[in-house]
Structure formats: C-alpha cells, structure tokens
Design brief:
- By secondary structure, the chain is of the alpha+beta class.
- The chain has one domain.
- It has three helices and six strands.
- Strand 4 and strand 5 form a beta hairpin.
Amino acid sequence: MARLPRRPRISGRAGYTLVEVVIAVLLTSIMVTSVFSVALTSKQGGGKMDRRLIASQAGKQVSGSLRNFVTGCSCNATTGACSAVSCTIQGPTPRGGVASWYLNDPANNVNDSRGDVWALAAGLHTITGTGVLPAWFLAAPYNANVQYTVDNSVVVNGRPVPQVTLNVVWTEP
C-alpha cells in the first residue's frame, strides 16, 4: 500500500489572531452604528417635515378663511356687526348678522378660543379642532393650534384695515 507524502509542518498556527478578530469586530460595529444613526436621523427628520407641512396647510386654510372676511362693507371692527344688509348674508356661517363673520364653527369642528366673535376682531385668536388640524397633532405630545393676532389700528379712507399675523404652534417632543 502506497503512503501519501507528509506535508511539512507550518511553524505558526493557521487562523486569525485575537487582535485581528477584535479589530474586525470593532470596525464592523462602527459601520453598523453609523448606518443605524443615519437611518434614525432620516426617520426623525421626515416626521418633523411632515408636521411642518401639516402646519403650513393649516395656516393657509385659516389665512384663506380670513381673506374671505375682508370686505368692502362697513362692519364694526370690534363686534363684527354689519350695518349693510348685504354684509350679513355673505358670511360663511351667518347667525343673525351680529358676529356672523367668525371662524368658530362647532358643526365643522373649528373652535376659536374667543367664541362667536368677529374673526377679524382685534387681539389674539387661538384656533383648534379637527376641522383645522388632525386629531393626533392636536393631542399630546404636540398640542398644536393655530394662533393669529389682528391689529385694526391701521385706517385707510376712514376704514380700519386688519393686519393679521398668523402662526401655527406646537411642541416638538
């Protein structure tokens, strides 16, 4: 029977040293950590952008509604009462002529913190409700709302011209 030739012995052991294994594990963990960090940052940034988009749309909606209230009739800048008959029937929610140009509309779930007052009455108005913002954005932890401030101090041709500053406010967790 023929014997196979013997291989010569290698002086060192075959395989990886402990230092090589530790360095490979360290490099792999750094790469995995960086990939997960980028993924997490991207997900959080996407959520913030979604909330900004929703806030922008709500602001445009309220701003558009307020634009409808600026008319050529002689509505009282404080109460919203209109002396001309044509003004009382133009409002989107006419309720008897007095303060008929307001955003407060429980039927469509839009709530003005000041209640049934003229939408362009001077001062701060806070708008909430699912008719303006989604329910999840109105609730904790965001507690979002639309705030606008009306300044009727500018008078043009004897008629006050409302200056409106609008903000959508929420808490970012």
